[in-house]
Design brief:
Layout (H helix, E strand, L loop, with lengths): L4 E6 L6 H9 L7 H6 L6 E4 L4 E5 L7 H8 L4 E7 L6 H12 L5 E6 L6 H17 L7 E3 L8 H13 L11 E10 L3 E10 L1 E3 L3 E5 L3 E10 L2 E3 L1 E3 L3 E7 L11 E3 L7 E10 L11 E7 L2 E9 L11 E12 L6 E5 L6 E10 L4 H6 L1 H9 L3 H11 L7 H8 L3 H13 L3 E6 L2 E6 H22 L7 H8 L6 H13 L3 E4 L2 E4 H23 L6 H8 L3 H13 L3 E4 L3 E4 H15 L4 E3 H8 L3 H13 L3 E4 L2 E4 L6
Parallel strand pairs: 1-3, 1-4, 4-5, 5-6
Antiparallel strand pairs: 2-3, 7-8, 7-15, 8-14, 9-13, 10-11, 10-15, 11-12, 11-14, 16-19, 16-21, 17-18, 17-20, 18-19, 20-21, 22-23, 24-25, 26-27, 28-30, 29-30
């Protein structure tokens, strides 16, 4: 595949950018009637030099800097044009700042109009240019004296350009297809056509594409590269795309073409930005600014981690930008910040994270959020994302869309993180999902705490069904798939215990088991009357430990449903009440009652009778007098 190179012009108005392109290629890039009449470039122009080289002509007037930005956002090399009779001018400075912000570090300076200056002046201007470049970190940038009118120096310029192109790095080709639209127009008989540079992967005729941020879809009817029909266009190429079923107004400059379901618009992102060489406008925190992403210009508000109240010139800031309307960007994209009015370039840099967590969380450990993208460490970026993504289960498609990477790229990353025990993998309806193990464990703890609070508040000692637990968990902003996995893990680990359709904490489960055993024991004691079985016999009969049984019986005693006779025998409350009523009736006509009368009523042997009589004495239902009993103080209470 032949490497395609894009050269972008830059420079002050009327320094001869368009004329220089015509001298290089023979193509006049000013095609609009208004451009011809006014003698200035207003819209982006395009010329083709050789089969694999495109030159973009950008406006030099300060009013059209946003158009210039749209043009240089995809270039590989710059051609900075400076008129010999003027030297360095305001847009020369601003354009070079913008090139730096967009990461264009290599190019050539064409010192144009040399026929309008004498040798001494040319020497001074060239010296100024070299100092100007060096001060901004541009080393080894050749300055070629030329005249677009006479043709002097053009051949040398072509040779130097060819050398630069030869050593120009190839664009990375490991992300899904993306193209930022820089022009949109209608062609009679064909319909809507858009142009742009293929930033990654490739596009083919008949491909289905999504237009962001609107989300509308269209199909590719045709493609042209350098005005020739092609069946596909690859990374780095300038391409014209004929779209079907879409109007020109729906794909104006600033929109992005992608493959369906590979990227989503954003309204907030973090960026590492570097301020311009001058700060003619004071920008304070949360101030409204113009935000340039790709070929789009949006409005947004900016703040930063650093303590300074205003942005200072030639400084680095770690910023958070909130857009008024959805935009399109991915980590490592260039971003340019300009003032609202008057128009000045303020800063530029690279996107670090899209759709980040609340700024308060970022500020606690902000270095991590900005350093990882700067180091281009995708694995660490994915780890960081899982940490702040919250209680959500994510599949490979989710992750690929989030980072705008191919699914196979993300698969390699998550496999490494799974081996490192950072990620937990699970399946649902045949799909594989991932969550950070630490996040999952945190969710388990928080769910258990929610259950305990609700149980204490509302006495949910009978447990919770799944719907009740999900309603609790929703308050933590988790998704249902993640919740189901958390619930299953808590059961597997014994943190929650499931009986039927209900879930219990260990404490609730113990109470529930005690309650169930109590419900089993009460009828036994009721049926036994005044001759209850021993606790040992009951423990064996019900298959429980004696200590566990004692706890249940103790609960029943505290509840007044059983009564303890010397902590050995227990009778049901119904039988005690029946005995007390017998005693009340008996004492209406008798002063004393002997053991025989009590034995006759209860029908029990001495083994049960003695503890029963002693219990009555202790509770003051009776009072012993020799071998007989008289009525006690509490009998009629």
């Amino acid at each position: 595949m032949t490497k395609h190179t894009i050269i972008g012009t830059a420079g002050h108005i009327d320094h001869g950018k368009t004329a220089l392109i015509k001298a290089l290629t023979g193509i006049d890039t000013d095609v609009l009637k208004q451009e011809k009449e006014r003698g200035i470039t207003i819209e982006l122009g395009f010329a083709y030099w050789k089969e694999n080289i495109t030159i973009i002509d950008v406006p030099g007037h300060e009013r059209f800097v946003k158009t210039m930005v749209a043009g240089v956002s995809t270039i590989d090399l710059f051609l900075l044009v400076i008129a010999a009779d003027d030297g360095i001018m305001p847009q020369t400075v601003e354009h070079l700042d913008i090139l730096g912000f967009f990461g264009v570090k290599d190019g050539i300076v064409a010192l144009n109009k040399i026929d309008l200056a004498d040798e001494e002046w040319l020497t001074l201007v060239q010296s100024d240019i070299e100092e100007f470049l060096k001060a901004r970190g541009y080393e080894n940038i050749p300055v070629i004296p030329v005249s677009a009118v006479s043709g002097k120096g053009i051949e040398e310029l072509k040779q130097v350009l060819a050398q630069k192109i030869e050593h120009c790095a190839r664009r990375e080709n490991n992300r899904p297809f993306r193209l930022n639209v820089d022009r949109s127009f209608s062609v009679h008989g064909a319909g809507t056509v858009v142009t742009g540079t293929v930033l990654s992967d490739q596009i083919k005729v008949d491909d289905l594409v999504t237009i962001l941020p609107s989300g509308k879809q269209s199909r590719v009817r045709g493609l042209q590269v350098h005005q020739k029909n092609v069946t596909s266009a690859y990374v780095g190429q300038r391409v014209a795309v004929n779209l079907s079923g879409i109007s020109k107004e729906e794909v104006e400059r600033g929109v992005t073409l992608i493959r369906p379901n590979t990227l989503e618009p954003v309204t907030e992102f973090l960026a590492v930005i570097h301020t311009a060489s001058a700060a003619p406008v004071k920008i304070k925190k949360h101030q409204e600014v113009r935000v340039h992403l790709g070929t789009s210009e949006l409005f947004g508000r900016i703040t930063w981690v650093e303590e300074e109240a205003f942005l200072r010139a030639r400084s680095t800031y770690h910023a958070r930008i909130r857009l008024e309307k959805p935009g399109v960007c991915v980590p490592e994209d260039a971003v340019l910040i300009r003032s609202i009015s008057p128009f000045y370039t303020i800063a530029g840099g690279r996107v670090a994270h899209v759709s980040p967590p609340p700024f308060g969380k970022v500020k606690q450990n902000w270095q991590k959020y900005f350093q990882i993208p700067e180091q281009r460490n995708l694995k660490e970026a994915v780890k960081l994302f899982f940490e702040f993504a919250g209680f959500k289960a994510l599949n490979l498609s989710d992750l690929a869309r989030r980072f705008f990477e191919k699914t196979e790229t993300m698969e390699k990353i998550v496999q490494k993180l799974e081996k490192e025990k950072f990620l937990l993998k699970f399946t649902h309806h045949g799909k594989t999902y991932y969550s950070a193990l630490a996040v999952m464990e945190k969710a388990e703890a928080e769910l258990l705490e929610l259950i305990r609070r609700r149980s204490a508040k509302s006495h949910f000692d009978k447990g919770f069904n799944r719907t009740e637990l999900w309603n609790l968990f929703k308050g933590l902003k988790g998704d249902e798939l993640f919740f189901d996995r958390v619930l299953q893990r808590t059961v597997n680990k014994g943190i929650l215990i499931k009986f039927g359709e209900s879930f219990f904490t260990q404490e609730q489960a113990k109470l529930n088991q005690r309650r169930s055993l109590a419900e089993e024991l009460l009828p036994v004691f009721k049926e036994a009357g005044f001759q209850p079985p021993s606790l040992q016999i009951l423990a064996e009969r019900h298959g429980v430990k004696i200590d566990a049984l004692k706890l249940v019986v103790s609960d029943l005693v505290k509840a007044g449903k059983l009564h303890s006779l010397q902590n050995q025998l227990y009778i049901h409350d119904d039988h005690l009440q029946r005995l007390l009523q017998f005693l009340r009736d008996y004492f209406k006509t008798h002063e004393r009652i002997d053991i025989a009368a009590v034995k006759s009523f209860t029908g029990v042997s001495r083994k049960f009778l003695i503890p029963l009589l002693e219990y009555l004495d202790q509770q003051q239902f009776t009072a012993r007098e020799g071998d007989a009993r008289k009525k006690g103080q509490r009998l009629w209470q």
